Amino acid sequence: MEEGELLYRMARACTGRGSIVEIGSFKGKSTIWLAKGSLAGAGTTVVAIDPHTGSAEHRQGDQPVWTYDEFLANLRRAGVEQVVTPIVATSAEAVERFDQPVELLFIDGDHRYEMVRQDFNLWFPRVLEGGYLLMHDTIRWEGPRRVARECVYRSRSFRDVGFVHSITFGQKVGKNTPADRRRNRYLLLLHIVYDRLSTVRASPALKRVAKAIFARLQ
Ligand SMILES: C[S@@+](CC[C@H](N)C(=O)[O-])C[C@H]1O[C@@H](n2cnc3c(N)ncnc32)[C@H](O)[C@@H]1O
Question: Hey, which of 98, 110, 120, 121 would you mutate to test ligand 1's pocket, going by the most ligand atoms within 8 Å of its Cβ?
Answer without folding.
Answer: 110
